[in-house]
Amino acid sequence: MDSDVEMMDEPAALPSSDALVCGKRSNVAKTSSAAAASNLASRVPWVEKYRPRLMKDIVGNEDTVSRLTIFSKMGNVPNIIIAGPPGTGKTTSILCLAHALLGENFKEGVLELNASNDRGIDVVRTKIKTFAQKRLPLADGRHKIIVLDEADAMTEGAQQALRRTMELYSSTTRFALACNDSEKIIEPIQSRCAVLRYTKLSDAQLLKRILEICAIEKVNYEDDGLQAIIFTAQGDMRQAINNLQSTVDGFGFVNSENVFKICDEPHPQHVTRMLDACIKSDIDEAYKILHFLWGLGYAAEDIIGIIFRVCKFHPMADLVKLEYIKEIGLTHKKIAEGLGTLIQLSGLIARLCRIVQPKAPAGR
């Protein structure tokens, strides 16, 4: 009995030092893994982080996206070509369509290639043909999908080989081509595909998406900063999101000055003042601004591009604007041919100042 009492009175065994160390290590490991996951998430580019996963989340080109949505519901998708400017959602639309069609079989049923790199005839004969021959059990009306990004960069020989592959495996595989210029794709492939065209996104569509990202990421911004992002993006959603993230990472605050520093473009305010001086025929003031921009190290191509974009929306008489755009276009042509000098831009300023001067009476 005494022994039983003694056993009951013994204090509970304390954990050994090794157990404590192991417990600490496990907690540290959990904390470090959570921190690593958090750091990894913070390093993901916002372009990928906020890439749409569903058809309904795609911004812009509503008519074309609605056709793809019908394809995703009905199944039996035709071969498609999506053509349009960069950053308008061509590849994203194809991937969203593939997710909707294949669901859990997405990884096994989709082959994504960037034709800018994988564009030779060997790729068509090996990767594409091997994938097309692979057997994969899918529901009725569902097919494997081969995504060719930047398809207009493929060589003509590769396109000819691709045409034959599309014919042979049409019962099991569908091809989705994304390109900037559909004219560079041979006609036999175009005739085998439904051609869908995307256009640049509007400023309102860009602004809506940018505001959503700013709210999620808790970005500090001013209205002129968002306007600058939209101005530099020119309808390119990818460019807009990249510029937003770069500005936030570089300065922590989004305003027009920080955005144009990150994008390394001439500030439109300087160009606006230069055009105002030209309208007043004040060539000295206009040249002073031009010389200032040139001294900052901007190329003639950058300066003439900003002059054109600012001139389009500048509040001036329509006849004057038409003449200005004509002169800007002629100068841009000369610069594109290799005459990108300060003299070319100075001559443009002189011609713009002369346009608004009153005509001298005849005989004088």
TrEMBL record:
<dbReference type="InterPro" id="IPR003593">
    <property type="entry name" value="AAA+_ATPase"/>
</dbReference>
<feature type="domain" description="AAA+ ATPase">
    <location>
        <begin position="76"/>
        <end position="211"/>
    </location>
</feature>
<dbReference type="GO" id="GO:0003689">
    <property type="term" value="F:DNA clamp loader activity"/>
</dbReference>
<dbReference type="GO" id="GO:0005634">
    <property type="term" value="C:nucleus"/>
</dbReference>
<dbReference type="InterPro" id="IPR047854">
    <property type="entry name" value="RFC_lid"/>
</dbReference>
<comment type="similarity">
    <text>Belongs to the activator 1 small subunits family.</text>
</comment>
<dbReference type="Pfam" id="PF00004">
    <property type="entry name" value="AAA"/>
</dbReference>
<dbReference type="InterPro" id="IPR003959">
    <property type="entry name" value="ATPase_AAA_core"/>
</dbReference>
<dbReference type="Pfam" id="PF08542">
    <property type="entry name" value="Rep_fac_C"/>
</dbReference>
<dbReference type="GO" id="GO:0005663">
    <property type="term" value="C:DNA replication factor C complex"/>
</dbReference>
<dbReference type="InterPro" id="IPR008921">
    <property type="entry name" value="DNA_pol3_clamp-load_cplx_C"/>
</dbReference>
<dbReference type="InterPro" id="IPR027417">
    <property type="entry name" value="P-loop_NTPase"/>
</dbReference>
<protein>
    <recommendedName>
        <fullName>Replication factor C subunit 2</fullName>
    </recommendedName>
</protein>
<dbReference type="GO" id="GO:0003677">
    <property type="term" value="F:DNA binding"/>
</dbReference>
<dbReference type="GO" id="GO:0016887">
    <property type="term" value="F:ATP hydrolysis activity"/>
</dbReference>
<dbReference type="GO" id="GO:0006281">
    <property type="term" value="P:DNA repair"/>
</dbReference>
<dbReference type="GO" id="GO:0005524">
    <property type="term" value="F:ATP binding"/>
</dbReference>
<keyword id="KW-0539">Nucleus</keyword>
<dbReference type="GO" id="GO:0006261">
    <property type="term" value="P:DNA-templated DNA replication"/>
</dbReference>
<keyword id="KW-0067">ATP-binding</keyword>
<keyword id="KW-0235">DNA replication</keyword>
<dbReference type="InterPro" id="IPR050238">
    <property type="entry name" value="DNA_Rep/Repair_Clamp_Loader"/>
</dbReference>
<dbReference type="InterPro" id="IPR013748">
    <property type="entry name" value="Rep_factorC_C"/>
</dbReference>
<keyword id="KW-0547">Nucleotide-binding</keyword>
